[in-house]
């Protein structure tokens, strides 16, 4: 699997630009043509998101649902959605096909192949090349179990390579030497996917930018749901890094790992298997652009925006514990006072 590494702050055309002054006019004209051709080539291919995602059911035991929904965005890009009945996380999984290799982004929340036939489905979607299935690279947006539970199923596929889940493994596989700075690149053959470190939700988090479709696959970094913050400073820096990276690049959609909001922007109960009237999956550049400011204004606990919620689960849990302890102390104090006053009243009667 060819993975190469290059500094994020170096725009793709800068090498051409820096050489432009020291070449003859003829060569310059040729390079200008090449540059134009490159720009035209980098125009993303269109795709369809005209799909109604499986919303689960109020009573999953009575519902007959396919565990995995497959949507062809365009002939070389597939979106798979795990049924909310199969697991409340209802993960989105993405399959990107190049001419030499394919990339699977995340493997979802369900390990059991009988309950979730992930490997079988991927095998059916993978095209043949020279009489064999296209080699597959399995990468994760981050190491949380709901994004990698399907890994063991895929190990049995032919020509499969799975990116390690620990931070050191991620860094060395992609060749990051100055984490979280720099951008890695995965060459799938006529299709390059950029890997952008995005720690904050989890220290191993990366986002994938696909030049073919102009899609940012954002995992749990940015999605229509709860942005669960583990390290607010790292998260904020990641938002700035992604905004900067995409400043000069086309961006058709931002596709995350889950949908946790309804169309009105209200969150489903945590753990719910039923998502009626879901928010659309795709977010836009405006959502990303607003994210750094949302972090700068964040009160440290909870903030609701139309397309996402910022929340720090550990802090909220601590705040709940503090409130619960305060209420308990108040109740004990009140009961004690009541008992004392009754005792005094009884004593005064004697
Ligand atoms: Zn996560
Ligand atoms: Zn997740």
Distance between the termini: 91 Å
How would you classify the helix and strand content by structural class?
alpha+beta
Task: Please tally the β strands and state the result.
Answer: 17
Strand coverage percent: 15-25%
What string gives the helices and strands in order? EHHEEEEHEEEHEHEEEEEHEHEEH
Q: What share of the residues lie within helices?
A: 25-40%
Spatial order of the strands forming the largest sheet: 1-10-11-12-13-15
Computed Rg: 25 Å
Largest sheet: 6 strands, mixed
Ligand roster: zinc ion
The best one-word shape is elongated
Question: Regions with pLDDT < 50 over 5+ consecutive residues?
Answer: 4-41
Overall pLDDT level: 88
Assembly type of the shown chains?
A: single chain
SS summary, helix count: 8
Describe this structure in words.
With 350 residues, the protein is an alpha+beta fold. The protein is built from eight helices and 17 strands. It has helices at 14-20, 25-41, 118-125, 151-154, 167-174, 232-246, 285-296, 313-349; strands at 3-6, 68-74, 77-82, 92-97, 102-105, 128-129, 132-133, 136-139, 160-162, 183-187, 192-197, 206-210, 215-219, 226-228, 253-256, 302-304, 309-311. The protein has a six-stranded mixed β-sheet with strand order 1-10-11-12-13-15, covered by helices on one side. Strand 11 (192-197) and strand 12 form a beta hairpin. The chain is elongated and about 100 Å long. Mean pLDDT is 88; it is low at 4-41. One zinc ion is lined by residues 142, 144, 201-202, 220.
